[in-house]
Amino acid sequence: MLEIKALLLAKGLSKNDNRTIEHLARGIAGLFGPAVSRSGARAAVAVILTPGGLLWPLPEAMANNAIRLASSGPSTLDVAGMDIVDLVNVRVSPFEVSTHLDQGYRASNAVSGSRFDAPIRDLPFAIQAFTQSFIQDQKPQNLFDIARYSPGVTYRSNDFNEGNANLAIRGFAVSATPGNVQVLRDGFYGPSIFDFTNISRVEVVKGPASFLYGQVAPGGIVNVITKNPQRSFAAQAEARAGSYGQHRVEADVTGPATETLFYRIAASHDQDIHYWKPYDAHSRNISPSLLWQPTERVSVSLKYEAFNKVETPQVMQKPGYNTQTGIAPTAADPNRSGVDVPGLPDNWNSMSYADYRRSKTRSLSAWIDFKADDRWNLRAGYSRQSYEVDALFSGNLGMANNATLLQGRRLRGQTYTNSDDTYGAHAVGKYTLGDTSLRLLVGGQYSSRRFDNWAAQAPNDPALGSDPTASPLPLWDLSNPATWNRHVSIPLAALTENATDTTTDYVDKSVYGGSTFGFFGDRLLVLAGWRRTATESQLDNHLTGQSQAKITASAVTPQYGVLVKVTPELAAFASYAESFVPGTQILRNPDGTSRAAAPTQGRGYDIGLKADFFNGRLSGTLTFFDIRNRNIVNDLAVTDAQGNVVIYNVQSGEQRSRGFELDTTAALSDNWQLYFSYSRMKARITEFSGNDATILAQDPATLDASGLVNYKNVLRFHNAPLQMSAPHLANLWTRYNFTQGGLQGLYLVGGANFVRDQTILPDGPASSRQTYTLVNAGIGYAWRSKGRRMSVDLMGKNLTDEKYRPSQSTRGRPREFQLTYVARF
User: Fold this and answer.
1) Apex CA 599: angle with CA 593 and CA 605, to 5°?
2) Taking the CA of residue 786 as centre, how many other CA atoms within 13 Å lie in the half-sphere pointing to its CB?
């Protein structure tokens, strides 16, 4: 113990940090006595020397587990083989998460909840962080495959042009309008589509988070953290093959270029399943990055990512029916909103052979971290994100009426282009006076965004008539495959009808500041922060040559929180926060009028418990929440008599979500770990028009056409559940490693995702809601050969072959199997 104390003190650890030193020494003495190896002690020291010079105290359980893991055999940590001098010299920025504190599925720290590295147990709100180990075991297809394990998260992306990153958290869509932010990438605004080639971590921050990130929905935000260059050489190659012709190859190489310059490059090629008929999709990703650390005080990071996906054709939702034609549903005129046309096989796709969707993402980010002194660290950064989708698709996805099986065959092209330039700077500071501590965060951000939207479709062919709908292509009888002609000869130059060609420019400016006071040795933590955001946007219509008036808005969004450590293992917390998303579009109302959208504003309360029992073997968070959101823009799609799909916008008065969430990670033994989450929530439109009671009190017989439209819409949506929300969501995932005898190296993984009574569309009938359980499981074997680590595993997904819809307009994947081989060097 004395030798370890002397080692830490010799490297600049103050004598006032006796508690940290004692934690380390107690862990060594209690678990291993003098038997702990020198390499184990070095790894434990690496854990103690957290980024930023001990911004937060290290809990005893974490110190004990760090030593236990470090001395249990050859370490997989990059720091395990370093000398103490090396460990001090390569200390990373406090703005980077301490991934070396992770233990399998258990994430210790996060950066998304505070903008700097901090223990999750010390944040007075709910946050889930999914580690690289968890991600690797899941073999995710998209972001939702990981984020769904966070309680209360569902999918909201559509199959038209939105990408694959839009989620709903606690019932609220992260992005409710085209062109808005769906996800964060390393703390900056992120792209709308990507895969996991370059992703090392996913963090989900719950509740309104506008104090930290500006324009985000009140349910929360997801931050994907990309891979960083490492200081020691490492390489990994992966090959995968599976059901329906799918295959994937991936490579990841990192190491030092010089003593101060480090590199990493990750690349992949992916071929998706040939299940839907017709459908083909392949993608590629290349992601290089550099880290330059010329001194202990300065580091410079540069990251780039290029992702391309081509679908020929894309897979789209099955055609569905609409709401009733009358004011209220009857037996003769039922509400069939969100109900698919029956009888179509699961692998059926409405697309033609000429259809396609080409998606492209480019991401560039750079930042410099500077340690000003022992108290202050600064970061300044720039990010450039662009996302483009170019699509051609045929076939109406909404039927002309609720009885027909004749589907109109429109042909429509659409191009979406999002680009974003963000500049940001922030600083964190720490002060300690006895048992009182103060941590400060100050920063500012400037963002310039542009959203281009072009769309047009082919004119209807008069020779085809209009019964039940007009169409440029011969109608399909969905009960007769002989009518499903997938050949299209209309040239792109003929797409002239129902055209849109607009550009929307956005500018966001914000400053923010916050503080966390720690009292009684950080047993009581009090957080307070504010952000002032000013925005402006303007839409240019290139078809009319007109520009709408600028829409400006500003708001101050606060966040307050308190956390009390009742015991070293148990803490209680409460928080309040607000969110702000400015209106950026002209609304097209169902009654034919139009107006500028008002800002969407939310506020929410969290109260709960955080636990860390049995030396970190059992940890979790229980949260009760209540969130209200005002002025949400909802899109209503209506198929008119000409076969055009007309999108109307309705900005609802208020939505509310309340309930509770539980997430827990358990190490049931040294070789068995488990993750479980559950949410129970009631997420509803509590006020649709802002005047629901008055409108519903009217006699429909006395209303004109506009009044009847308003009355019907309020009747449809008042107190309706939010889209894709589910009262009950539960998720389980586990891994067991065999460590003895002839089975050593064998491992099992598996779990389930349970969804009950999920709403497809808010105005859909109760019969359209879905309940399902996805079951996934795998078996693998890991071994060493000539110093190289190898593994092979077989994963089965959706083993019960459930038929489900991840979101209103996406298709669930069938039962599939994947065989993966990985070699690490």
Assistant:
1) 135
2) 2
Cβ atoms within 10 Å, residue 423:
14
Is 704 exposed, middle or buried, given 0-12, 13-18 or 19+ CB atoms closer than 10 A?
exposed
- Say which amino acid occupies 359: S
In angstroms, the CA 308 to CA 194 distance is 9
Strand partners, 652: 632
Alpha-carbon span 399 to 643, nearest angstrom:
9
Nearest to 32 by CA among 72, 77, 81, 62: 72
Helix (H) or strand (E) holding 60: helix 60-70
Q: 244: helix, coil or strand? A: helix
CB 456 within 8 A of CB 498: yes
The DSSP string of 738-775 is --SGGGTTEEEEEEEEEEEEE-SSTTS-GGG-EEEEEE
CB 475 within 8 A of CB 643: no
Contact 193, 631 (CB under 8 A): no
Distance CA 289, CA 104 (A): 25
Backbone phi and psi for residue 179, each to the nearest 5 degrees, phi listed first? 90, -10
The model's pTM: 0.86
Count the helix, strand and coil residues of the chain and give each as a percent rounded to the nearest 5.
Answer: 15, 50, 35
Task: Please give the radius of gyration of the chain, using alpha carbons only, rounded to the nearest integer.
Answer: 27
Rounded Cα–Cα distance for residues 792 and 822 (Å): 6
Could you give the CA distance from residue 593 to residue 7 in angstroms, rounded to a whole number?
Answer: 74
Strands (DSSP E) found in 333-410: 356-371, 376-394, 406-409
Residues 6+ away with beta carbon under 8 Å from 700: 327, 708, 711
CA 585 to CA 587: how far, in whole Å? 6
Distance CA 213, CA 445 (A): 9
Q: Is the separation of the CB atoms in 751 and 733 below 8 Å?
A: yes
**C-alpha to C-alpha distances, 497 to 354, 589, 758, nearest whole angstrom:** 19, 21, 36
Total residue count of the chain as it appears in this document = 825
User: Which H helix or E strand runs over 91?
Assistant: none
Structure token pair of residue 151:
């309680």
Helix (H, G, I), strand (E, B), or coil: what is residue 86?
helix
- Give 241-287 pLDDT, tens digit per residue: 999 999 999 999 999 999 999 999 999 999 999 999 999 999 999 99
Q: Is the peptide bond before 468 cis (omega within 30 degrees of 0)?
A: yes
Contact by Cβ (8 Å): 458, 493: no
Task: State which H helix or E strand residue 28 sits in.
Answer: helix 18-31
> How many other β-carbons are positioned within 10 Å of the β-carbon of residue 212?
26
Give the phi and the psi of residue 213 in degrees, each rounded to 5.
-125, 5
Residues of the chain with pLDDT under 70: 1-92, 113, 158-162, 176-179, 210, 584-585, 634-647, 652
Using CA atoms, how far residue 89 sits from 293, 297, 302, in Å, is 10, 10, 20
CA separation for the pair 102, 129 (Å, rounded): 10
- Give CA separation, 585 vs 92, 252, 541, 618, 659, in Å: 42, 42, 12, 47, 32
Instruction: Determine the pLDDT at residue 282.
Output: 97
Contact by Cβ (8 Å): 781, 756: no
579 sits in which H/E element: strand 570-581
Question: How would you classify the pairing of strands 376-394 and 411-433?
Answer: antiparallel
* 3-state class (DSSP) for residue 661: strand
d(CA 578, CA 705): 38
Q: Are 769 and 756 in contact (CB under 8 A)?
A: no
Contact 825, 253 (CB under 8 A): no
57/820 Cα distance (integer angstroms)? 40
d(CA 734, CA 779): 12
Per-residue exposure over 802-814, b if at least 16 CB sit within 10 Å of its own CB, e if not: bebbbbbbbbbbb
